[in-house]
Write a structure and sequence with these properties.
The protein has 83 residues and is mostly helical. The chain has one domain. Helices cover 76% and strands 0% of the residues. The chain contains 3 helices and no strands. Helix 1 packs across helix 2, helix 1 runs parallel beside helix 3 and helix 2 packs across helix 3. The protein starts with a helix and ends with a helix.
Length: 83
């Protein structure tokens, strides 16, 4: 259940990132939300592996939010202009 909540956080941040991005975004909202969900799960898992983010703690949600934001920002910068 915890991973579903983390993925949901990523989906919501992905939707927000899509809305905040200027111009047309390659891949659309679904791809942006999917990237956000995967990024949230992976960054939270990395935090758990290094012993910082344990399941069910606020720091795990923090890792999900910050990691998702960073991944989406890098993804958007690497995309360049709109298609």
């Amino acid at each position: 259940m915890e991973w579903a909540v983390i993925a949901l956080i990523g989906l919501l941040i992905g939707a927000g990132a899509y809305a905040a991005m200027p111009g047309k975004v390659r891949g659309g909202i679904l791809l942006t939300m999917l990237v956000g969900a995967v990024a949230a799960v992976v960054t939270t898992w990395i935090g758990a592996q290094i012993g910082i983010a344990t399941q069910g703690t606020m720091i795990a949600y923090f890792f999900a939010a910050i990691g998702t934001g960073l991944v989406l920002a890098v993804w958007r910068m690497s995309m360049g202009g709109a298609a």
